[in-house]
């Protein structure tokens, strides 16, 4: 996830922002049975909402976040907050997910590390952090916990469930498992399942974390430490692979940060890209929980949309009743356009309504977080249709 | 570098192999001044030769190895040896580099860890391993030390200097710095300089090594340990990025090594690609020196063919007097065909004779080590021309 969104001037918030937002925490004391067979007796979900829920409760949008995402998708937490939520380009008044018309719910997924119950939370059975004992989670578990939030607001059907990357997997799972509760499913830079290469990169990230001596078998919090360098490495792998070669070339080229190429110099030259990566890794390692990273990458690896539908994506999508918008980005090589076209092909074969846009963009997988004109236009046009449907039904 | 070359039957060596070969060590006691300004007072070079040097000494080929390569490029070290040298597909009787006609010299580069003097060798000044005190090396230093080997054999001109990847960088450096001593330069899956993405992957590998607590600032041998998990991680990054997505997909798909996807299982499923990567990382970490890996990746990052020629590759190549064969592989994304085309474009603009072949192949950067039909045919055809030139001059 990029950190490059331009900070606003601290004396005023941008007019197309949802403005100051406040996260809230919802406690659930009904046990939730998980795909792994275990259950959580109680848990918290932290969430934010933007816009107003209409009286018919028909204008609700669910945002599903990706690997390193969280509930804070739009707006600012204070007037001094330097950075807005991670999807500020897409959520706000007049933006694709237009908060003048929609009510947006954005939650931190169960197992996360930004306020919802996860491996860094206290296990009530032991009084210690869950750590590696936190149950394995699947996309369907997130769908189940999101559905409880839905009930809380009295929403019977989402106007749209929207997600990029791992978030797109959750959106598709929603469409298959609760077809009557989803009007539109928007799947951005995602896939029906990971490739071997993608699993391999996730495994490298996990190995980096678990082979850090500070990992302590996942019980690092009990040892009052964190596997900082392992997590930083994991992030660096993610960062390089979520960007495109051209995007990195444009951003860094072979620019030198320090040193020079004079003969007589030992290895003193440092390229910009090296210090940038180390900085990104360092920042991430101090703000993200290592066990959450392991849990999220496993959920990614295990996701296989059609597994329970005879490995047939057409059979799988036959269960859906919603409209689909699928978008991909030309330079995204971890969730390549060919993966999105597989989704579209299966939807077409299942005779489902689908719009597909393959967006020319230079920034790899991270493109879904960036203000790319055709992306935002296409997204807005589709959402306008969703809004008109909502209005017609009123 | 792939480890998949089929082992021979132990009761006989393949007839198209150079057979049993023996590495030799050459000691140099004349000081070698390096690009970094420091010098090595004395050093060893381990090497192998295949085929016979003719009386005119005009049939000599120099092989330059890549990041994790070494002198053992062809043949077997004993009748029981399970695996041949790393370029067995290209070197041998009747193969592209035909040992019935050519004399082949293959050395382990200075700074290596397979017998030539490197960071794991004893520093005569301290009686301890060089470790991080070993001087930084550049491609030109390897060229200089290879040139001393050349003199030893009384060779005045190479019939060809040949290398893949980092080896191709050395071959190009030879062509520019010693134009009268190279008749042909064969550059395979290489580049005039690395992209930011490539530098980033190397930096991740280095961070994995140096952040391993067993690294001890590079003095791990003095601590009687090695940064095993860091080196394994570095290798895993290399392995994934040197393969193509399709190649990995073909080889592993989402095949499961253990566990199953039944509901009620925690994270027990292990994909084939995960255990394969861990195995490869483990093997490598026990056979390669971490400081050598750092040194070699730095030489890769710093290489910039045209830096001293006003950053103009055309001006650079104007110094060359040899013929060029450039080859690339369609699925190689770390040394992509576009990088090879840059070399070819510069050569054409410099009015140098160049043949270029872009080989359709599925195995990423590793393709240059594999028996791909069009690759071997093109390579053989060019080498036939080199042989005919040698014969005509006799």
Automatic annotation (TrEMBL), chains A, B:
Its EC number is 2.3.1.46. The active site is at 165 (nucleophile), 332, 365. The keyword Ribonucleoprotein does not apply. Belongs to the AB hydrolase superfamily. MetX family. It catalyses: L-homoserine + succinyl-CoA = O-succinyl-L-homoserine + CoA. Transfers a succinyl group from succinyl-CoA to L-homoserine, forming succinyl-L-homoserine. GO terms for cellular component: cytoplasm. This is Homoserine O-succinyltransferase. Residues 59-243 form the AB hydrolase-1 domain. The keyword Mitochondrion does not apply. InterPro entries: AB_hydrolase_1, AB_hydrolase_fold, HAT_MetX-like. Pathway: Amino-acid biosynthesis; L-methionine biosynthesis via de novo pathway; O-succinyl-L-homoserine from L-homoserine: step 1/1. One of its GO terms (molecular function) is homoserine O-acetyltransferase activity. It is an enzyme of class 2 (transferase). It holds the Pfam family Abhydrolase_1. GO terms for biological process: homoserine metabolic process; methionine biosynthetic process.
């Amino acid at each position: 996830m990029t950190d490059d969104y331009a900070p606003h001037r601290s004396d005023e918030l941008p007019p197309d922002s949802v403005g100051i937002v406040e996260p809230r925490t919802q406690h659930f004391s009904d046990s939730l049975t998980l795909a792994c067979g275990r259950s959580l007796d109680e848990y918290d979900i932290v969430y934010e909402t933007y816009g107003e829920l209409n009286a018919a409760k028909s204008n609700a949008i669910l945002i599903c976040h990706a690997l390193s995402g969280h509930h804070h998708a739009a707006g600012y937490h204070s007037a001094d907050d330097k950075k807005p939520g991670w999807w500020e380009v897409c959520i706000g008044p007049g933006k694709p997910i237009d908060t003048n018309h929609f009510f947006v719910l954005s939650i931190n997924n169960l197992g996360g590390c930004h306020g919802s119950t996860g491996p860094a939370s206290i296990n009530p059975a032991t009084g210690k952090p869950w750590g590696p004992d936190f149950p394995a989670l699947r996309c369907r578990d997130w769908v189940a916990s999101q559905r409880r939030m839905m009930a809380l607001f009295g929403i019977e059907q989402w106007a749209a469930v929207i997600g990029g990357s791992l978030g797109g997997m959750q959106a598709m799972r929603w469409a298959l498992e609760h077809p009557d509760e989803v009007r539109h499913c928007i799947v951005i830079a995602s896939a029906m399942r990971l490739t071997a290469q993608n699993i391999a990169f996730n495994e490298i990230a996990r190995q980096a974390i678990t082979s850090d001596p500070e990992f302590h078998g996942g019980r690092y919090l009990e040892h009052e430490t964190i596997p900082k360098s392992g997590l930083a490495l994991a992030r660096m792998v993610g960062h390089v692979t979520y960007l495109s070669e051209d995007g990195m070339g444009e951003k860094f080229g072979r620019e030198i940060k320090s040193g020079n190429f004079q003969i007589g110099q030992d290895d003193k030259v440092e390229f910009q890209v090296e210090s940038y990566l180390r900085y990104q890794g360092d920042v991430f390692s101090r703000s993200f929980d290592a066990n959450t990273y392991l849990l999220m990458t496993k959920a990614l690896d295990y996701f296989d949309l059609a597994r329970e539908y005879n490995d047939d994506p057409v059979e799988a999508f036959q269960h859906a009743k919603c409209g689909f918008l699928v978008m991909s980005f030309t330079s995204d090589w971890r969730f390549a356009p060919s993966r999105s076209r597989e989704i579209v092909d299966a939807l077409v074969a299942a005779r489902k309504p689908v719009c597909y846009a393959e967006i020319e963009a230079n920034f790899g997988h991270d493109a879904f977080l960036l203000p790319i004109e055709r992306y935002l236009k296409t997204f807005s046009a589709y959402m306008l249709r969703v809004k008109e449907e909502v209005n017609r039904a009123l």
